[in-house]
Amino acid sequence: MAINLEKGQRISLEKNGAGLSDVSMGLGWGRRKRKGLLRTTEVDVDLDASCLLFDEQRELQDQVWFRQLTSRCGSIRHTGDDRAGGGGGENERIDLQLDQVPANIVALVFTVNSFLNDSFSGIPSAFCRLVDRRSGEEIARYDISLDGGDHTGLVVAVIDRQEGQWRMRAVGDKGYGRTFKDMMPLISASLP
């Protein structure tokens, strides 16, 4: 059964005594409702998921996002940009082979940004979830619609490596910017 993460909560990525190696971070969201004079319509929402790879010196070494779908090492892959939202499931997904992440990478930071600079207020059913790709089991879910707010970016979670084992922490820090590049000070502050 999945853990519903709250801001600051930490979980281990160990399962039955072994570390999970093949996981995905999925991002899903609904379309915003716009009320007109005669009817309500749905409006596209362009959210973007990113994964940033940091080394022990807290230096950004690589990034995976809609402009670079695969990390240089090949261990992290983005499934592609969804510019509309809706559908009820994952709209974007980042697949990770944790056992293939280079040894010098100690933290993976996941962000979500509104590329059109629309606020997160009123975006329905927005969530991130970590899934064991081998079993299909949802490990953890972080509901990002609960907070609402006028922010346009969010540092969602950090997966970091401690003594050879990966763990995940829900961050939930709100920021502003169309891409992760606009939020680098906030991202840096979230590093372990």
TrEMBL record:
InterPro entries, sorted: Stress/Tellurium_Resist, TerD
Cited CDD domains: TerD_like
Assigned keywords, A-Z: Tellurium resistance
Pfam families for the chain: TerD
Domain spans labelled TerD: 1-182
Domain of life: Bacteria
Keyword NAD: no
PANTHER family: CAMP-BINDING PROTEIN 1-RELATED
Protein name from the UniProt record: TerD family protein
Protein source organism: Thioalkalicoccus limnaeus
